[in-house]
Amino acid sequence: MDSFLSGAAQIFTLATLIYMLAGSLAGIIAAAIPGFTVTMAIVLTLPLTFTMEPLQGIAVMLSVYVGGYTGGLISAALLGIPGTPSSVATTFDAFPMARNGEPGRALSLGVWASFFGTIISTVVLIVAAPPLAMFAVKLGPWEYFSLIVFALTIVASLVGDSVIRGLLAGLIGLAISTVGTDPIMGRPRFDFGIEMLETGLPFLVVLIGIFAISQLTSEVEDAKSVRSGNALVTGAIDFQTWKVMKEVLLRPVNLIRSSIVGVLIGALPGAGGSIANLVAYDQAKRNSKDPDSFGKGNPDGVVASEAGNSATAGGGLIPLIGLGIPGSAVDAILMASLMVHGISVGPRLIMDHADLVYGMFIAMAVASLMMLFVSVVSMRMFLRVAEVPKWLIVPVVMVCCVVGSFALNNRVTDLYLLGFIGVAGYALRALGYSLAPLVLGERLTWPRTLAALVGFLGILIVTRPSPETLSPGLVAAAGAAIGFAGSAIFTRKLTRTDSTLCILFWLTLTQAIMGLVCAGFDGDIALPSAEAVPGVIVIGLAGLCAHYCLTTALGLAPASVVMPIDFTRLPVIAIVGMLLYAEPLDPWVLLGAAIIFAANYANILRETRAARRAVA
């Protein structure tokens, strides 16, 4: 009892409470900025605690910790961008709810769920820290492997009705994780000799690219809404305090289950909120009477995700206090802070520094109250983001994403990855998650697919790639070709809302900017000589005419019909090379060209007959 009172006396001082209040605000703001993680905020806070008493410094960092788990909700709900990895699942229902005219309710649900999740985890921490710590340390490789497999099955179930689509998304994620250095053997994997890939793809950069860049790109698709000053979300922006608190408490099973999931996963060394929010969300969906409404603004999804990720804060302290093993990167920083003050962290921490441990328990509860107070006061200000027009908020958030990605490792190459992954995320959003028929307005039927595959076979015959000739440059060229094929589909969509000249202008401007960037990649942009300028102008005008014709054609016919004709440039180039430059004509080129023409003709013939039958 004396240890408890001693810890409480150190926490309930005016200076400590003011510091904790500032820490909660800092954690919320840091997590709300895409790319600025809670860990980064804790690292920046650590030097400020060196002059404080040990418990006072830990209390401040715990406030940043707890506030950070809640702050990721802000951008997830209002922008559709998870502020931290632990708020990924929050985006699934909080953003649709905000889009449906209830941004205030979405934020209120998340804040109250985070508060109760932290309180529940604190209670579990106080009661069960030693036994749970002993249980967690007994988990071996097989148990962790089972957890990862379980997480992968969750990813497949989160996509809705299409399990195949979820499995494909999971395989893409696994493929991304294999890039870099093998953690067992220390050998490079799939870096293709590119230096920036040797350390792997930074998870945060991938997260920002997939969610943030793709979402922001989707927001500016509708030029009219951008010009008219439409906001990202509309509706009631008032923070609903007591009404939503009752709504959260009326979901006791979901709230307690999600909090327990967060505590258990947080207690596993190496696991954390990024896994807990997905597992809690999945369990809520599996046990719901209306699972189909998840992903469309179901409040249970918001409660589960936020309660689950916030409960990992208390769960992560279990192995730290019971065994001296940090449960996450943030817990490792907390341990470092204690060691700076000469406190040995280990199994004897509770016995040797009981007042400190009890003070940490109290600090967790006070930090949750501070988070709630700061949220109730400041969320009204954050909700004003919902009223900011797209033309202003989109570039501001884009800049924050770029700055956050760069600040992670201070590497310019991460920005290249961010751009590439953002484009890939936009393509996945448009093509892979049941949005292709709605957004593109074009069904990819089996006959069209077969014709496209046969035409692609003809291209392979013409190019005849081999492992010996494979190089990073060729892989990049192949990726550019795939991107060009995707651009044809998007161009066809744009022809329904914008003029050909408008599309041509932005296409040319984008190509000019990207061309200059690529030309100066080695730091040397070669300018054409005076004799070459007329030829360059002729080539440029020819390219403009070609793009104009291609854009017009895509406005009149599906991409599956237009692109095989465009691919005939391969045999035409071969013939021009033979006539003008005495290049030998490869018979494989003729065979590939014949296959391309045959696939294209079969596709056009089928489309024409189908159109005639429809008219008849």
TrEMBL record:
Which keywords label this protein? Membrane, Transmembrane, Transmembrane helix
Q: Give the transmembrane region(s).
A: 20-46, 58-81, 109-129, 141-160, 197-217, 255-279, 320-344, 356-379, 391-409, 415-433, 445-463, 469-490, 502-521, 533-554, 561-582, 588-605
Which protein, by its recorded name, is this?
Uncharacterized protein
Asked if the record carries the keyword Membrane, the reply is yes
Q: Which domain of life is it from?
A: Bacteria
Q: Does the keyword Membrane apply?
A: yes
Family annotation (InterPro entries): DUF112_TM, EamA_dom, EmrE-like
GO CC terms in record: membrane
Domain DUF112 intervals? 17-440
What region holds the EamA domain? Answer: 472-599
Q: Species lineage, top-down?
A: Bacteria, Pseudomonadati, Pseudomonadota, Alphaproteobacteria, Rhodobacterales
